[in-house]
């Protein structure tokens, strides 16, 4: 009998790039059977909390809260320098140069347990009201002036200027300046109740899939286009070049150190409980 793995990944281009070969069975599944679902990152977080996945990509904010039951796989993470969410202002606010200050202002965030929300709460505590929406709604609402600010992730990082929006701050740059660490956005986690042998098989398939796309980047474009919000191939590949890097291949010591700093800062800010153990990478 094959071991069935309920696997969840996001629809963003770096995931569909990394998992293209797995999704299309272009690499050996090593005796596993993958029941694969692609969802928005906050939906992945929610379903992981609900026990719907054995292995899933999730925000590292969510992973911290699940650290007692989940272990991080070495491959598949989004972590790096220059990869952070952007805090944008609406068209009307951009013209005034205003920043998040008061509760009568609204900031749109892409999900309660996203790392984007964690960063906004770290750097702009007790300022605006926060409204959680699907990431793809944030820029359209800022263009329509139905919110004051928004924390922008995914492809919007490359297209916000075309929409006439204002840049308040690159939250990733602020993280880098304060910690000297790459920013850990999201990673692939596995249920600790699975045998280590099974988790390592999953890790090996993911690594093979990632290596496959790195050897033939253009081969993954059709899969990426099918799930993307932005269909311009140049923008999709910009996304891959930014978010897929050496730490996607293997988190290593630097990745582990960045996760430790995220845990520390989130605890100090009261965003996660002080008893949170911190994330372990599959040994």
Q: Report the total helices.
A: 13
Q: Strand count, sense and closure of the main sheet?
A: 6 strands, mixed
- Strand fraction band? 15-25%
Query: What is the CA–CA distance across the termini?
Result: 26 Å
Element order, helices and strands? EHHEHEHEEEHEHEHEEHEHHHHH
List the helices and strands and how they pair.
Elements: E1 3-10, H1 13-18, H2 20-23, E2 32-39, H3 41-49, E3 55-59, H4 60-65, E4 70-72, E5 78-80, E6 86-89, H5 91-94, E7 106-109, H6 115-123, E8 129-132, H7 138-143, E9 149-152, E10 166-170, H8 171-179, E11 183-191, H9 196-215, H10 221-227, H11 233-243, H12 246-249, H13 252-268
Parallel strand pairs: 1-2, 1-3, 7-8, 7-9
Antiparallel strand pairs: 3-11, 4-11, 5-11, 6-9, 6-10
Helix pairs in contact: 6-8
Report on this structure:
This protein has helices spanning 13-18, 20-23, 41-49, 60-65, 91-94, 115-123, 138-143, 171-179, 196-215, 221-227, 233-243, 246-249, 252-268; strands spanning 3-10, 32-39, 55-59, 70-72, 78-80, 86-89, 106-109, 129-132, 149-152, 166-170, 183-191. The longest helix is centred in the last third of the chain and has 20 residues, at 196-215. With 283 residues, the protein is an alpha/beta fold. Strands 1, 2, 3, 4, 5 and 11 form a 6-stranded mixed beta sheet that branches. Strands 8-7-9-6-10 form a 5-stranded mixed beta sheet. It is 40% helix and 20% strand. The relative contact order is 0.22. Helix 6 (115-123) links the parallel strand 7 and strand 8. The mean pLDDT is 93. It is globular. The protein has 13 helices and 11 strands.
